């Protein structure tokens, strides 16, 4: 009995890798349909598609695929030894059945796919003339395995193309990119076809072993260079398109990043005080990759820490990398952050940023077709992008959206933005492949509540226990930084713990009030232990009264000129169109005297005198510590 042919284990591993890569891409339901599919099944499916097209008066000649089926039949015989005992063999033809069925609903796409599939036939025809002894050779097996890898890569590209969300919408703009990828695979198949020919001529020559190995290595190097070159060109083209879109929309993406970073910095300074929100029951349902809990309103009073909680949620989602996470933070400090058109454009860019096909689609609509980016146009692009956002046919795509401070916008913007979010949730659901989840963090607002009917509400006033624990931890951290000074007043660690607890209870969920009390303790001079310990009860409970007390304390020894200067600083922060950087602010204060010949900037210590009502952000701009100070609530 003759021994079975030896198997090249590297070749088997190449086939296994290609198979698993395609298997991961294909959805579970499609995987079940494809397994055990025979070549005859694919032939029958092609004829069935032909009959269906004829019934729709869109007859297409499916006989063009017969050379492909014949080539695959001959090729399958060459890799029998490599595929024995595995599920690998049917996957060289099974995906064709599915791709033809899906694409037949769109005749223009179907025609192009038929043509590229037909091109595979030519390199496969060579296998009709090879004898069994040839493809039992281990060196030849490695080249045969590369054919398998290329064919499955071809199927993967075709499958992903027709299985992604709204693929018909993206067909015209994306086909060129897919055509280049298909061409690259076919080029590789043809190169390996020539290598097989050369091996066939030299297979009986003992000295050819070294030559074949060298040729195969050169081929692999060339192949990788082709892949790298194509990837580089594609990346450069997409980057150019994205920058052109950003320029056309006139969006400064750094604004949203600055706002987020400023709030995130505040969260770092109070580390551990906002993590409780991730374990809150309604919020856990919203964070999970489940189709439930798609729309949540996070309500809280001014100063309750909503923005810090929102950044904590965004950072958690981004770290987990389980979904596309989008965010927008509205604040009076940056007027454009409250503009509806700017909000729209920000979300559009966040949606398409990591998706080459969506970038190409938006570039085509806005720049190739020169459409004016009106609210209506951008809204439509956002909804199209949501429907088409699913990249992986085997997994549901999740989009998490966080908007903070929407109540700082006018009521029309509140209503329009909320309604758009609802439409995005519906658009994702209708795609069948994407789930969109929205979190709006704001004060209770009739405009938002009305537009977000039947949404879940997480009210911070119902989370007093969590907030009290968080504020107590924050107060304990802040007071521990003053331990050296406090010990000189005979304030013990037990006193600090008790003081933290009393600050947290009296704050009643108001992080801002606790912060102001702690700033008061950090910035004032005390002679007696009781002055420290009585602060929570002595200081006004209402924010407005506390602001007045702090301002009175700051200005109590100011002369008239100093009062005018602090007033000027506060007015610049309140009414400037955008936050001023330190150098700009110092220049503005210097020239406020009305003397155009001023050569010196105002001193930096002026800003320190306004603490704790204002703060310098990480980007060197100044802002009030909270929107409630601006009078723009």
From TrEMBL:
Among its keywords, does the record have Repeat? yes
Which top-rank group of organisms is this from? Answer: Eukaryota
Pfam families per record: DUF7708 (PF24809), NPHP3_N (PF24883)
Give the signal peptide as a residue range, or say none if absent: none
Q: Which UniProt keywords apply?
A: Repeat
Q: Which residues form the NACHT domain?
A: 294-445
Q: Report the SUPFAM superfamilies cross-referenced here.
A: P-loop containing nucleoside triphosphate hydrolases
UniProt cross-references to PROSITE patterns, sorted A to Z: NACHT
PANTHER family from the UniProt entry: AMELOGENIN (PTHR10039), NACHT DOMAIN-CONTAINING PROTEIN (PTHR10039:SF14)
The entry's protein name is NACHT domain-containing protein
User: Lineage in the entry?
Assistant: Eukaryota, Fungi, Dikarya, Ascomycota, Pezizomycotina
